[in-house]
Amino acid sequence: MENEGFYIRKARIDDVKPIHGMLMDCSRSGLLLPRSYNELYSHLRDFFVLAPKDGGTIQACCALSITWDDLAELRSLVVSEALRGQGWGRRLVEACLSEAVTLGLFRIFTLTYQQAFFEKLGFQVVGKEVLPQKVWSDCLRCPKFPECDEIAMLLEV
């Protein structure tokens, strides 16, 4: 997946700090929840990143997290402000969806404030009660629980 001086690849250990920085910047804006370094190191294999061909700092990331035997979550999608609107978010999501299918996962959900973006990719709004595994695995530890204002969206591929 190469284009315009960037390419999408799986994250590496030296990407953790830039990923953390991007996620923290977005969390301060209220666009997503922060992730600790511990979470990022533990789930690094979940992440795809947008890397410059010249070896500079990554400019975007997205993760696919397995939630249950038939369900995965798309999470932590961030694209640097300079590259927004160029299709990189869609390409990162597509990389995660491709990996989900490879793993045999055909139901992918996200919790988001970007409903229109995900609708363009085929996701549909669902009630959070459709995602009981997510509620018990992550939501109970979330500072927004039980007053979550994110929109649950599901894609069945």
TrEMBL record:
InterPro entries on file: Acyl_CoA_acyltransferase, GNAT_dom, NH2A_AcTrfase
One GO process term, biological-process aspect: L-arginine biosynthetic process
GO cellular component terms attached to this protein's record: cytoplasm
Pfam family, one: Acetyltransf_1
CDD domains: NAT_SF (cd04301)
Domain of life per record: Bacteria
Keyword presence, Acyltransferase: yes
Keywords tagged on the record: Acyltransferase, Transferase
SUPFAM superfamilies assigned: Acyl-CoA N-acyltransferases (Nat)
Single annotated GO MF: L-glutamate N-acetyltransferase activity
Coiled coil: none
Record domain N-acetyltransferase: where: 6-157
Protein name, per record: Putative acetyltransferase family protein
